[in-house]
Please model this.
Amino acid sequence: MSNLKVDVCVVGAGPSGTLLAYLLAKKELSVLLIEKSEKIGKFFRGEHVNEDGEEILKKHHLFDGVEQLGLLRMKHIEYWHNGEIFKAIDPDPSIGHLSIHVPQANLLTAILKEAQKLSNFHLLLNTTVSDLVQDKSGRYVAVKTKHGEEVQMVEANLIIGADGRYSTIRKKAELDSMTRKHGFDLLWARIPAPANWSPSIKNASIDDLQLAVYSQANNFIQIGWNIKEGSYPTLHRQPISPFIDKLIEAFPELEETVRNNIQSWHDFVLLDVFSSISEEWGKEGLLCIGDAVHTMTPTGGYGLNCALKDADVLADLLHKENIADVDFTDFITERKKEAKKLLASQIEMEQTFLENFAVLS
Model:
């Protein structure tokens, strides 16, 4: 078994982990970023950057690189009923857009392009963490990794768990996680956009649940369809045609592309919707950020932006000279407060969604 030693080992090459690894490497810390997947960027993840996320990317001179790879500014949020729009939210004229769709692969590629210019930054793909190692005092000092048949011990002054909603690091460190169900699951699908489709987020109510259609970069549309929690096995046994007819009734312009691209239930991806918050974010030598300690639902697109903010704030706190003994108390208190605030906002948005259609009654 080979050994490696770095200042910081970041587990999880999603937006928060990748951004943090880059920012710390810029500060001349030696950083290893570990990702279990064979490639970066996953479909059907949070991909809408709001004002906070946009500000962070511009602060670190990353926005232009992302834009070169492709993004799409949303021009409207719309509410539809019986195939017609009845309400729209337009952007502040001084800003000119609402959220920005940024494909996760484009975001990560732009960050990694800059990170890989730094000799003290290293990335391991297709690598899993099998265990955490503690010293005699109980401090976390290393991770055991596996890449194919190769096993490696990575010693680090600080271990960061940025490995998502099912975080291995959080579980291995036995950090708490309080999970909440929201009464719905989500079906995702991605289809080509019709010609002249305006960049927008369109909403409809189907069986008193939200159906949202999001414009995407590269002329695609993402469908996010809320269904009752636990109902998918029953739906899956039924013909898909009546289900698709409801989608087309809500958004008639999509009929051709929907019928051409959604042929069966296999054309949807099911997301088990839940939120969670951890009261304990770390232990000696170890800290978790992003979805690993504050999983959010897709509502409002907060998850990505909150995770980027975690990385931004944490990077300002860490320096080579304090990496082994930094006090994370204020960071955890501040970021936990913000995460709880956003989770409360998500719950309110979900519970009041039908009020957007009250004008019709």
